[in-house]
Amino acid sequence: MSQHKQHAWYLHAFAMIAAQSLVSTAAMAQDTPVDLGKVDVVQQAANTSVTKQNKATEQYQSYDPVDSGMSVISQGAINQSSEGGIDTTELLKTLPFVQMDNDRNDVSQENMQSIRPTGFSIAGGNYYDNNIQIDGVSATSMMDTTRGDSRDFREAYGQTSQTLYVNPNLLGNVVVLDSNISARYGNFTGGVVNFELRQPRREFGFDVSASMQNDSMQHYKLDEKFKEDAEDNPPPEFTRYNTDFSVDLPITDDLFLLLSYSRAESKVTYQMAEAYAGTEFTNSDISENFLLKGLYEYSEAITAEAQLIYSPYSNEHQQPNSINSLSLNDSDGLSGFIAVNGIGELLNWHVKASFNKSQLDRDWDGDRFQWPSASEYANWCTSTNCVEGGLGDLQQSQTDYNFELSADMPLWQGTFSFGSELSYTKASRSRDTTYYYYTARNMARLGVSELVCPENDLACKDNDTLLIRRLDYSGFDADVSLNRQGLWAEYQKNIGNVDVRGGLRLSHESYLDNYNLAPRLNVAWQFLPETYLTLGANRYYGNNTLANAIRAKYPDSFTYTRGVNDNGDVTDWQLRTHTKNPLSTLEPDLNTPYSDEYTAAITLPTWLDGSFRVKGILRQHRDQFVTEFSDSYRVDTETGTSPVRDSRFTNKGETDYRGLALEWTGHYRNHQFNANVTWSKTTTNGNTENYYSALDTDKDDSTFVYYAGEVISMSQLYNIEGLQNYAAPIRASVGWASNWFDDALLTNLKLDYRGEYKSITDSGDDIDFNGTEYDIYAEENLKASTTVNFNVKYRVFEHNNQNMMLTVKIKNLLDSNPHSGTSSSNPYQKGRSFWIGVDYHY
What we know:
By secondary structure, the chain is mainly beta.
């Protein structure tokens, strides 16, 4: 049975099981009546009408004095302010404590081709340290998302921190928690993002939408210093399409279904390197979503819900400096859950069972050959070394099963909430066969008059070329599993004008075998009418990465060499080096990374029925995973050959984050306004960017450089500089949404500002200071940028229950330079661009 047929069978089987489970649950509930459960499901379903979407909506909603870290991007805001394409994480960039990947505006063929979500950081956490959920089901990758270079022989290309992608048109709300996070949430040191899909509507209807963009609708910015590089490096030609279809089916008065299909595709024109004839070729990405969602309202007290999402993603990648090396990367996400909610006078409860499976397959024909250009065979290339072939097939998967139970009840004139979670994760990466990489150290004849190639030897060409060095990367099957348990409890009570919420979360996982207790405390004091001071102190423990557990099971690497005898006969391969996997003998003896947080906020009412808030967050990320290498190389005692430099994960990584934000929202008639400005600083020891960044604290403290008129250590320099990506020091956002002419015209204007970066780099010069030579480090500024986005939706047709809207989305309306950083190989930045689309609703 093929992979896609298997997934189709899974869809059918799950749908049948979900339907049977709903009926069974309803029957049991009838025998044991309780009051109501979680009403969020019912409320959201009632609020997803198309009419509501055609009202002006603020960019995000916030200002809860108790949940001071919660922001909600509503369905209306998603519908009106999305920038085109299917990147759901772009919706987060207007929030004050969220930082986006600064490289997203670089113009390269790979960037224009990718339609995957953008990486993001919350409150100084790494981009892989967030708890990402889709309708409360984890979609967070536990694999290594820091690597995945297209030239890596053991790592998958194009991985992100999300295992499942959804289309923005399916969203009902996006809930973001950046601080003061309840004890019911765990497995993060950044923040929590829950993409809530919309509920089925009560009446029959369907929606169809389509949109597109191509290179004629994208203007590019070019700095003068890159002008010469750009002459032989034109901007990419591309096309992007999005299509969506969804239908709401009220099966009975109590059972409602939502079915949806969406597809996004990108096609980009590439050019082979000049040494490889410079011919053009096309690569593409395709992202699809299949959704089946059901809501059953058994009574006013009981609701049940089931959902299944299948999200395949395919990517083509052909390197421009090699031939016969097209890589096909298919990643599939399959997720589902069954949930039952109830509310009663004495107890409200929620039960959910879910699973999430992601799989990535790389189809890349090996082996790889590096031919000398003087070879008669390599007449298709003029480079010194001519590359042919791929890096071998690869398979990767992660499967999560989760069961959760939560409840809340009145207690001592307050509310007591509690819950538990059980989860099992299995992750694997494998290659079925050994992959070979052949290289030549010199021309093959090696002083002989005739070369006789062994039969079926692909690395030998008669009378021409012999490749004499071979790297063997053995096939492998690395799999690990992980059990996690979590218990939490929380109590909230009003004491006069003070609202106090305190909680504890106890968690354990089987790989590191650590028990972690995370206290959470939040106090909101209404010291004036509708004016609050909120203080919080919380600890969060991170999500475990299984990257090192997988890498520890990689096989050793071997290098072989051969030659030619006087008769021209090729000699047998001889083992030259045997490199052991330095992680294979290491046991996990690590603490779980954690983050201690202190936050304060003042919230007060303002003019235009608005709210104003000043909020500060201090985060101390500790016990972070980083890589340490030994100071010296050793000879492997088992093989006596290859020198080895040991490396290992340690808990010596540290990140400090300080952030302060001013936020305001208000409305006037048919206009909604948002504005915020955020100052932040993020520093790490050694400027480590991820858990594979090498840390050498002794060297950083003992190596001195000259900067700003004085001699300082490298560690002091890192503290001055701060991180460069996901860490803009000043950010601001202003939004204005309006609806006009009886909701026939909707406009959304948004301004985003990113302050100037100061990057500190080695100038290349030296200075003699008090008789000692020091490298001179100097500032290099990355200019500030301001971008204005403008979306227009116009209703061109309306009759009874039907309407059609035309959409134009203009990103970077003023055609400013985003200054995200460029290189000589990718000298362009994204200027003004357009998306056009049409939406039809019945």
